[in-house]
Amino acid sequence: MRNYIATFSIFISIITLGQKNTERKFDVEIFEYLNKITDQEATSLEIYLINSKPFSKWDMRPLVAKEVKALDSVYSSSQIPNFIWGAFSNKYGLSQEEGMDKANNFLDDGIQNQNKLIDYFKLNNKSFNDLSNLIIKSSDKIFLNQKTIQRADNMFKENNIYWSYIIPEGSPYPISSEIKIENNLKFSKQQNQILTLLNDLNIYSAVKTSKGIFYLVDGFTDNSYGFYFNPKNQMEEDHLLFEIMKSEKITDNYFYYIAN
């Protein structure tokens, strides 16, 4: 815990030095919020990793801005969760080497599971086509289907309660320290159809871009692996939230990918 406190102090100090005093430090607010809520709820490392997967409720990567001001400099969106993981891995008692190994082991899993997952996709090609058609017709861009959390764009469903983050004006981040309970909203029939298919196909998240759809089988910080749909048979390699490390065409319109 002493090492974690030192890491936290350095984190805050660097951000404070790197920004004008008059600027609201959204990144610090989110870090403090995550630190507080994981303490209050006695969040285990396993649950923390689930909630901080790409596009889950604690993923703070900006969805639009390619770069944001954080720490002592300007960083890409995909670099932000690495700093957060560095602090939280220390909090959970992992050494720096162990923290780094988790990312490397995750990418190794993506490589090791490639053939098995491609075979699985081929067995379920029709269902993926049905899912892609539904998502294309939807106005939503992000879907999340985890054991205890579901999401359609900015609306989450957790413990049968619908809620959304209250995003402060000027913040580039998709999460904040404040939430709003949505008493009068619920998922539409179309959204439920998509979430059900994701569950049936063991896909925890789907992200629609201007070019196609990423289907995430698993994710860690800014890393993920899974499938990608593109109607023009082209792998998307320039998306700010998916830095493609490896891809392979599976069948018409679909690829297997690993992003780091």
Highlighted features:
260 residues; alpha+beta; 2 domains; ten-stranded antiparallel sheet; two-stranded antiparallel ribbon; 8 helices; 40% helix; globular; disordered N terminus
Structural summary, described in words:
The chain is of the alpha+beta class. It has 2 domains: 2-104, no CATH class; 114-259, no CATH class. It is 40% helix and 23% strand. The protein contains 8 helices and 12 strands. The chain has helices spanning 2-18, 26-40, 45-51, 80-91, 96-112, 114-123, 125-137, 189-200, and strands at 67-70, 73-76, 142-145, 149-152, 155-158, 161-165, 179-181, 205-208, 213-220, 223-229, 244-251, 254-259. It has a 10-stranded antiparallel sheet. The chain has a two-stranded antiparallel sheet with strand order 1-2. β4 (149-152) and β5 form a beta hairpin. α1 (2-18) runs antiparallel to α4 and α7 runs antiparallel to α8. The longest helix has 17 residues, at 2-18. The chain starts with a helix and ends with a strand.
- Spatial strand sequence of the major β-sheet: 7-6-5-4-3-8-9-10-12-11
Q: Termini, distance in Å?
A: 29 Å
Label the structural class.
alpha+beta
How many whole angstroms does the radius of gyration measure? 19 Å
Strand content: 15-25%
Mean pLDDT: 90
| Multimerization status | single chain
Ranges where pLDDT stays below 50 over 5 or more residues in a row are 1-10, 12-21
Number of separate strands: 12
